[in-house]
Amino acid sequence: MNLHHLFAIPLTRTPDKLCLQFRQGNQTRTFTYAQLFQAADELAATLQEWGLAKGDRVGFYLGNRPEFVVAYLAVIRLGAIMVPINLRYRRREIRHILGDCEPRLLITEQSQLPILDELEDEERASVEAVLVVDAFNDWLPQQPGKLTPPVVTGNDLALIMYTSGTTGRSKGAMISHNNVLATVTGLLAAWAWEPDDVLLLTLPLFHTHGLVVGLHCALAAGATTLLRPRFRAQETADELLSGEPTLFFAVPTIYVRLVDELSKRPRADLDFSHMRLFCSGSAPLAPETFKAFRRLTGHTILERYGMTETGMNLSNPYAGPRLPGTVGMELPGVFSRIVDKEGQDLPPGEEGELLVRGSNVFQGYWRDPEKTQASFSHDELGQRWFHTGDLARLDPETGYITLLGRSHELIISGGFNIYPREIEEMLETYPGIAEAAVVGSPHPEWGEVPVAYLVLEEASQEEGLDEEALVAWCKTQLASFKVPKEFHTVDELPRNAMGKLQKHLLKQRQAQQGQ
What is the 3-state secondary structure (H, E, C) of 253-297? Predict the structure, then answer.
């Protein structure tokens, strides 16, 4: 089975049911299951005639809109591999992704062309064509050709999703149809999805949370998706109170803003009795937000845990206690262990690294066998376990797992992963900066934000740093959420006798300054 087979089940059963509704401003566009899949097949036939073949990579650099869904369904129908690109990425990040996965086709929208035009020809050498979805009709012939789909198995790749690496180079996680199927079918059962469900989806489709947890599950369940370009607190609150949606998935930052928005409204107007489930993921949800949301809405947010590389791993139960600060238990088909530094299993209550295995776990990193090998280990039975890099503890009484932080230096800001090394390498190319260290600083809305400590070159120490110019330059190099929110100039960075940077001392200094 492949993903098309899964999505074709509701297409066969309820072809005339509303599948997708997209609203932007005063404009609303709707697609039944039959209309959506007909559009996808017509595009697939056109792309096949153009020459797109099984195994080809296709970059997606566009925001939430129906054309994203149509193009994605067409691409996987042909056995090609979709490569989503974060819309906040700029030249440095896009150049790496295009150079690494070498897509033949790039699908984008008119508003993103100025950013892509910044790339030199050699930086997009593999791209044979750019499909601008605003001009879809220019690609589609009046009489679509005949589609001859190739044989696509569950072991074939469906996605290459890039996740930041500690070396500053993002890594492409190779995700097969079977990997996605495992996550989707597990969530359909664990969260009691129904065909009558209506998902309000404001998360970006270029992220696994919006694409796999949101869109894929809705399509597989035969549900309706209310797709929106982005989250806007007032508009989203209005829609959640309209009585139409039954499901809403978000990152903690969104729940913080919703709590703020709902707190301004009369309590009598806050009727969420039609809602079935609110979920949170991609970053830790503060217990204060968890409690405030329950107080305002009467609903208990369900927290879960997943990764780009693994899809979804753990979840609080749908029918059972949902405990703030925990990510619950294994989803169907997922196995977990908590181990010490030697890889030995730890008893419940002790802290160690979380390892997972299951059909949901990805195939490895694209063109990076060394990193792939380093990310997995085998137990005495020969079973292959993925090292998540997360520290965790299993509660001996509830059986729930609590995440305690990263075993490396990942910063999670608003649900997006930020690795300090990438920012440090970029900062050290700026004139006058000799060394840079970036750490995460707690933030009430975003969870964490990056903060930079800089050592200036001797020639620049007297004149100092023009922070406004540095910020402006950073914004041309990296996504805005990766730009440090504070810059501190120091005489030297703390290092041990071996010369290794001791970032925990920077965090201690940061904590003392905040007191």
Answer: HHHHHHHHHHHCCCHHHCCCCCCCEEEECCCCCCHHHHHHHHHHH
**Residues 274, 59: Cα–Cα separation, whole Å:** 38
DSSP-derived pairing of the beta strands 171-176 and 364-365: antiparallel
Q: Is the pLDDT of residue 168 over 60?
A: no
Q: Which residues are within 8 A (CB) of 226 and not within 5 positions of it... i.e. 6 or more apart? A: 21, 23, 198, 199, 200, 201, 239, 244, 245
Q: Which residue has the tokens 């198995």?
A: 153
365 shares a domain with 504: no
Lowest mean pLDDT among 301-305, 332-336, 486-490: 486-490
We report the CATH number of the domain holding residue 427 as: 3.30.300.30
Domain range holding 391? 301-406
In percent, the amount of the chain with pLDDT more than 90 equals: 77
Report the domain count for the chain. 3
- pLDDT band at residue 496 under the 50/70/90 scheme: low
Q: In Å, how far are 77, 121, 231, 256, 473 from 90, measured between CA atoms? A: 29, 16, 21, 27, 12
d(CA 19, CA 21): 7
Q: Do 167 and 310 reside in the same domain of the chain? A: no
Examine the domain organization and report whether 76 and 36 are in the same domain.
Answer: yes
- Could you tell me the pLDDT band of residue 288, with boundaries at 50, 70 and 90? confident
Q: Say yes or no: 398 and 473 in one domain.
A: no
Question: End-to-end distance of the chain based on CA atoms, in angstroms?
Answer: 57
State the CATH number of the domain containing residue 378: 2.30.38.10
**Residue spans of alpha helices (H) in 287-358:** 287-297
Same domain flag for 422 and 401: no
* Residues 456, 374 share a domain: no
- Reported as a pLDDT band with limits 50, 70 and 90, residue 498 is very low
Distance CA 442, CA 141 (A): 53
Q: Which residue has the higher pLDDT, 507 or 320?
A: 320
Q: Examine the pLDDT at 310 and tell me if it is beyond 50.
A: yes
Residue 346 DSSP one-character state = P
